[in-house]
Amino acid sequence: MNGNPPEPRLAPHVYGHQAAIRQFEEACAFGRLHHAWLISGPAGVGKATLAFHLARRVLGGSDLNSPVGRRISAGTHGDLLTITRKLDPRKGQLRGGITISDVQPVQTFLHHTATEGGWRVVIVDGLETLNRSAANALLKILEEPPPKAILFLTSSAPGGLLPTLRSRCRSLPLSGLKDEEMKAVLPELPDDVLRRAHGSPGRALFLARGRDSVCAKLVAQAMAGGELDHENWMTISQLAREADSFALLCDLLSEALADQARDAAFAGDLPRAAILAERTARLGQIRVQSERFNLDKAEAIREALALARQGRQD
Question: Quick one: a GO biological-process term for this protein (predicted)?
């Protein structure tokens, strides 16, 4: 699709998130630049783009056409290290999570002298995908940060992170983009797609590929109390292999359960509203645990759909 936004490393602008940018700029201005910043928010909302924007600010590469800016764009800046999920060459897709071997280079990188005489910056994109060993290794780094070093950590599920890890970070929570900001990022997409994306450019691009109808059909069947047939099982197996599809299915189920809880509350049926609210919270736990511990997503989808069917049968 033409008109897709550039990848985060190459993005010349950040649309929205001005409150987070101001918070960081104020810390810079007053000399209170914390060593770790947790950038959290919905999937596809621009967390990695903001992380690179702030990294450019620290390294003096905000001008993409400057020598420093070009090195950051090319991935050759000696004082910037990026950690994210790697591609599995056998499967041709991203691995399920970030492992300790992915995190180990951070320790060496941060204890080397900066090649350009300033700050050393690390971006860890997708903190919720760290396995337990990787999370503990990163925590040790945050507990003993070297001078003139800063980490930007992104997460779509901050509630599932180690509390000790979260407590060592300054929080930069992001929300969805406004309608005009979405239109500026993706001017070629129709308004109905942008509206259903809830302020997430990444979600909008996914919806534009038409995959949402598959998820919506499963959710509608589950909310009606229907049993899963062979075709449903095949669909679930396919969705489990697609991170975007899994996230969208969880979002649609969560919205449907929350709507039912709200309707029950308005009707005065507070016991049922409480049960549905509890199931909505449980759905969130299923999602966080499956992503944090790299669990079988097909099983997570089945468990999530079972919650929706129970909500109908009560």
Answer: DNA-templated DNA replication
